[in-house]
Design goal:
single chain; alpha+beta; 8-stranded mixed sheet; 3-stranded antiparallel sheet; about 15% helix; binds zinc ion
């Protein structure tokens, strides 16, 4: 962040009085610009044992596969966001079910939340952000071509839970900053 969205003046990183972390502070109007994690919401839509996957038409990870997911909007619930993303990316009307996973993606400053979902009718088509969409049998999931680690984690847990006949939720944390070597 370089400029204040309130007055247009330059901002500077500093720790405000009473705070403990550096924030972007406007030197002209004193506005403190907090930056907090963004929420990505998605679901694993299933139809007769197969899972609806989308191949991304946009960066990041264009051409790779994922489940329908995207940024939560204001004035909607997590479940509404998950259903909306299925509609936008796969033109699929899904029924959102139980909470499946919560993935803290620290390096991206995001929290990813996934639900189980049902696709009552096998009706779907690529939305503007998808190159193709399709129902994929568990044995045919393109694990090596999944877009994001959170997708991989979520699909693994989904299939394990289904095999075990329960619907718990799962937390995990992904932090690529920890594995990055100096200079890379
Ligand atoms: Zn300002």
């Amino acid at each position: 962040m370089k400029f204040c969205d309130q007055c247009g003046a330059a901002v500077r990183l500093s720790i405000p009085a009473g705070d403990h972390l550096p924030r972007y502070v406007c030197e002209a109007c004193s506005t403190i610009h907090y930056r907090n994690p963004r929420i990505v919401v998605g679901c694993v839509p299933e139809h007769e044992g197969r899972i609806l996957l989308c191949r991304r038409a946009i960066e990041p990870r264009r051409g790779f596969w994922t489940v329908p997911a995207g940024f939560m909007e204001n004035n909607e619930t997590l479940q509404q966001a998950a259903a909306r993303e299925s509609q936008e990316e796969a033109q699929a009307e899904v029924t959102i079910g139980s909470l499946l996973s919560v993935v803290h993606v620290l390096h991206a400053e995001q929290v990813h939340v996934f639900f189980r979902a049902r696709l009552p009718a096998a009706r779907y088509a690529p939305g503007a952000e998808s190159l193709e969409v399709g129902l994929v049998a568990p044995a045919d999931i393109p694990w090596a071509d999944l877009a994001f680690p959170s997708t991989e984690f979520t699909l693994h847990r989904y299939l394990e839970d289904k095999a075990g006949g329960s619907e718990p939720y799962h937390f995990t944390t992904i932090d690529r900053r920890l594995t990055r070597t100096p200079g890379s």
